[in-house]
Amino acid sequence: MLMQKQDAGLLVVDIQDKLLPAVHDAEGLLARSRWLVGVARDNGLPIVFSEQYPRGLGGTVAALREAAPQAPVVDKLHFSCVAADCLPSELTQKRQIIVCGMEAHVCVLQTALELLAAGKQVFVVADAVSSRQPRDIELALSRLRAAGAAIVSREMVLFELLGKSGGEHFKLMSQRYLIGDQP
Fold first, then answer.
1. Where would I find the Isochorismatase-like domain in this sequence (predicted)?
2. Is 107 among the catalytic positions?
3. Active-site hit among 14, 81, 100, 120
4. Which of these is catalytic: 94, 107, 120, 127?
């Protein structure tokens, strides 16, 4: 299955101020997630940010919010966004959900598994998820793959949303996301 622009949305799970410094390669995760948010925004996908217990863990990192200022932010106490019943219909109406964020083995894993159980096609962006321990990232991705999630890279997301080369949109996306130093 390929990602289709008209059928997809992006869920950014819990990349929050107080939790981000604790995860493996925090700077890289933030840079790659911001890149992914930009790709989703520039392709017209709905974007949703979730926050786990924001009173204690802080809000979504400002750099991400600035990349998609119109995107809704939902808060939760459940680890899974699905169990928390907090996702807006603009995302849940989509049949394909692209997921990035943290922690891969907790909130990302539980959310993605429950999205799969709800009949969604789930694409977990391997280079835009993290946990405190690298081994937990590996285990989460392995479990998600076994459960039926597609494990993808950021560039897979970009090229599948584009679908073809040529035209002004492709040129713009190439200039923004492929040329020069990329995270």
1. 10-155
2. yes
3. 14
4. 107
Give the burial string for 122-138 (b: 16+ CB within 10 Å, else e).
Answer: bbbbbbbbbbbeeebbe
Identify whether 14 is a catalytic site residue.
yes
In single-letter form, the type of residue at position 129 comes to V
Q: Is 63 left (phi over 0), alpha (psi -120 to 50) or beta?
A: alpha
Asked about 18 being catalytic, the answer comes back as no
pLDDT tens digits, one per residue of 76-117: 999 999 999 999 999 999 999 999 999 999 999 999 999 999
What is the share, in percent, of the chain residues with pLDDT greater than 90? 98
Other Cβ atoms within 10 Å of 144 Cβ, number: 24
Q: In the chain, what are the domains? A: 5-177 (3.40.50.850)
Contacts of 32 (CB under 8 A, 6+ apart): 100, 127, 128, 154, 183
pTM of the predicted model as reported, rounded to 2 decimal places: 0.98
Continuous H helices in the chain: 26-42, 54-57, 62-67, 81-84, 89-92, 109-117, 134-147, 154-162, 167-177
Residue of 76, 81, 94, 120 with catalytic role: 76
